[in-house]
Amino acid sequence: TLVPGAASTGAVCLDGSPPAYHLHRGSGAGARGWLLQFEGGGWCNDAPSCAARAGTRRGSTRLMSKLEVFSGVLSNDPARNPDFYNWNRVKLRYCDGGSFAGDSEFRNGSSVIYMRGQRIWDAIIADLLTKGLAKAEKVLLSGCSAGGLATFFHCDNLGELLGGVATVKCMSDAGFFLDV
Fold it and tell me: Is residue 141 a contact partner of residue 149, using CB atoms and an 8 Å limit?
């Protein structure tokens, strides 16, 4: 799902394309549970690496696959995922190169690179709130690698956005990086 209206708020991927996510709706006893998973995929560290990344699926929704396999904790198979198989499961597509945290742009002549991860996060959550996230009882925010770092960045914010009504837990997988 491309996030409607995101571009008008400046919530865009490195190349200016709109952000996206994939949603599998929950059912039965899991209908008010939500699992949001940040996609991982490293970072870009400077203008040249971000410009290169903008021409890949990690920097543009135009280049991402339209269908995603939901496996592991996102699986809808109760034998493989007994805890979350019937929850609303969301894969947040990663296209900003900075763990959903930046809010800047770089202009070089006629080219522009957008580093708008914070705006992307805000736009996706605003859209999901209208699709039932606002009525969640339980929420798990997770991610791996760069997505795991994003989990640290946005855990408290998600709890605040849900007004303390839902139980919000966060699980970062390989998202802690020592500067060594």
Answer: no
> 3-state class of 125 per DSSP?
helix
The pTM (predicted TM-score) of the whole model is: 0.95
Contact 119, 10 (CB under 8 A): yes
Distance of CA 95 to CAs 70, 98, 163, Å? Answer: 19, 8, 28
Sheet with 138-144, strands from edge to edge, namely 21-24, 88-92, 33-38, 138-144, 167-173
CB 26 within 8 A of CB 72: no
111-160: pLDDT as tens digits:
999 999 999 999 999 999 999 999 999 999 999 999 999 999 999 999 99
3-state secondary structure of 87: coil
Q: Which residue has the tokens 């490195």?
A: 14
Would you give the distance in Å from CA 47 to the centre of its chain? 22
